[in-house]
Design goal:
There is one protein chain. It contains eight helices and 37 strands. The chain is an alpha+beta fold. Helix 5 crosses helix 7. The longest helix is centred in the C-terminal third of the chain and has 41 residues. A hairpin with a 6-residue loop joins strand 27 and strand 28. Bound molecules: 2-acetamido-2-deoxy-beta-D-glucopyranose (7 copies). One 2-acetamido-2-deoxy-beta-D-glucopyranose (NAG) binds next to loops.
Length: 637
Amino acid sequence: MPCSMSSSFNCLVIFLYFASSVVCQVEEFVSIDCGGTRNYTDPSTGLAWISDLGLMSQGTSVQAENPNGNLMQYQSRREFPIDSKKYCYTLSTEERRRYLIRATFQYGSLKSEDTYPKFELYLDATQWSTVTIFNASRTYVNEMIIRASSGSVDVCICCATTGFPFISTLELRPLNLSMYATDFEDHFFLTVAARVNFGAPSIDVIRYPDDPYDRIWDSDLVKRQNYLVGVASGTQRINTSRDVNTNSREYPPVKVMQTAVVGTKGLLTYRLNLDGFPAYARAYAYFAEIEDLGADESRKFKLEQPSLGDSNSAVVNIAENANGDYTLYEPSYMNVSLEFVLSFSFKKTTDSTRGPLLNALEISKYVRIATKTDRQDLNVLNALRFMSAESLSVDEGDPCVPTHWDWVNCSSSTTPLRITKIDLSGKNVKGEIPLELNNMQELIELWLDGNYLTGPFPDISNLINLKILHLENNKLTGPLPSYLGSLPSLQELYIQNNSFSGEIPAGLLTGKITFNFEDNLRLHKGAQKQKHFKLIIGISVGVLAIVSILLIGSLLLLRNLQRRSSHQRSNEKGDSMRISTKPSTRHSISRMDEGIACYITLPDLEEATNNFSKKNWQRKLWISLLWEDERWKRGSS
Ligand SMILES: *[C@@H]1O[C@H](CO)[C@@H](O)[C@H](O)[C@H]1NC(C)=O
Ligand SMILES: *[C@@H]1O[C@H](CO)[C@@H](O)[C@H](O)[C@H]1NC(C)=O
Ligand SMILES: *[C@@H]1O[C@H](CO)[C@@H](O)[C@H](O)[C@H]1NC(C)=O
Ligand SMILES: *[C@@H]1O[C@H](CO)[C@@H](O)[C@H](O)[C@H]1NC(C)=O
Ligand SMILES: *[C@@H]1O[C@H](CO)[C@@H](O)[C@H](O)[C@H]1NC(C)=O
Ligand SMILES: *[C@@H]1O[C@H](CO)[C@@H](O)[C@H](O)[C@H]1NC(C)=O
Ligand SMILES: *[C@@H]1O[C@H](CO)[C@@H](O)[C@H](O)[C@H]1NC(C)=O
């Protein structure tokens, strides 16, 4: 920390100094002590920390054993269950503004029965980092720079592979204007891989209030495996107390720019590991001439880093590039491919009298922003979950990624992701179905049965993919919309035990849709009655015709019998013919079946004529009639 307890007076002075210029940012800082039980002001920074009690209802607060240092934030952590769910903090943001978001993890010390946790950190739907704890007293810091795409952002913990997933702190820091703007920010976040203050006076980090944006600048004195190794001999640490003008894009803190390393033998070399690499990165170097060079002296050097290609040849002359001493020069590489092991060196040019100088370095990895669930779909889900008396998907972030809420299903093929199924059967949902439901065009199944829903039948006229709709056992009222029968995909509609009224749309009664509408006392098949009336007339006419044909047939049969008795002797031929007529007869029957089927659908027939159980009789009649007729024709020819 830049300030210890003993120097808190100094801190206060610094704080007051900065307070005038950065009061806006500080007021907007959100600092959450996860697992903490009270709100407090950190004496070392003057920043207000809040407990996450009102922000996170899941997980438990766990006291850290032997926390490292005496910082309040690390006295406890919030631990989550080991399950397939994700647990999310929702932070308010201003759309299109850039933010630094920081999550830190310090386990405390490990009890003998504990295993080191390993789990995933997500920002919205985007996989941010795999958090792997190796050292219980180390503070693992994850920083992400984003441009907010909406009014909030979710930071989620999930998918533990070992140990209990947890979090210690969560911080949101708004950035100023175009700081950290990139050409790719619509599609990529920037996760900070290294931010190093060279020539630092101690191993302490520099952050707020020295850095008004509260970035964490690591000291180059920290000793860690594969962190700033391979330092060239002749490397010297320099510092100045003079002010440095840092008015450039990224506004690094003056304190960071007041120290540097110099390669007195003409060379600066470093090597460090970059977590999450190889990857495409944004790389920034921060230079300011903080030595007073004589009139005949010069400091010119070149970066030597094979992966930077052409840039190798660019000669840095800090004072010239920055237009003066004690002024920041900030070259950056917008998009550069870097390996896991980053080796770089700065080498003095032959005509330079002084060796290379470096004040600070920052490297951030591009992380492609993953597709989120459609905002309109999410709005409906949120409306529904607030209507439920049960705690549905509390603190669970995006409904679809990386795991979906247990009461929805999602399409994975669309951008953005869409909801295909909502299952809220018997989930204590009260109130009117949100109108916006009609925007969920990819919805295939909707189960809202067994709740306390009131109001009219929801507008679902746009839900052309909806196959299954269950609204039974609710308190819905009013008429059924007329388009219901012609929704293109609807296969199953259950509305029984509601208070719907009016006429049932004709299309629902064709038998194409499984439709259950019992126990809706004021719902009737108005239009159907007329149809049935016509049907009955039709059938009566049909029956009349049948009777007439029957009569004629009987007459013909009689005649046939008379004729046959006179041809009885030539019988053998007649028998074989009778067999051969069978297929033809069958054909007639099947044609007849089709005729009946397309004329009068079976349910209609049954409904219209309760005691018209003569269907079989009628069919048999036709069969024997045709058969006899055929036989007669063959026989007589
Ligand atoms: C934010 O940007 C404005 C405009 O460049 C500048 O005047 C102001 O000082 C900046 N704020 C901070 C805290 O750097
Ligand atoms: C802490 O501060 C937050 C935000 O100001 C507030 O909502 C919450 O009630 C406070 N909690 C306690 C325990 O005072
Ligand atoms: C664990 O981390 C602490 C704090 O960063 C450090 O002092 C200690 O040396 C580390 N232990 C190991 C074994 O790396
Ligand atoms: C600054 O540099 C001088 C030597 O040039 C050294 O004595 C002093 O300790 C340094 N101060 C810091 C804060 O590094
Ligand atoms: C960086 O460059 C590579 C290669 O040209 C390209 O594939 C990538 O999309 C660029 N941008 C980012 C943010 O990675
Ligand atoms: C979601 O879809 C998957 C695969 O189609 C299925 O196995 C799962 O049961 C579905 N879940 C729900 C809640 O419908
Ligand atoms: C009808 O629906 C109500 C809820 O609206 C439910 O309490 C009741 O049990 C249902 N009745 C039947 C017979 O299912």
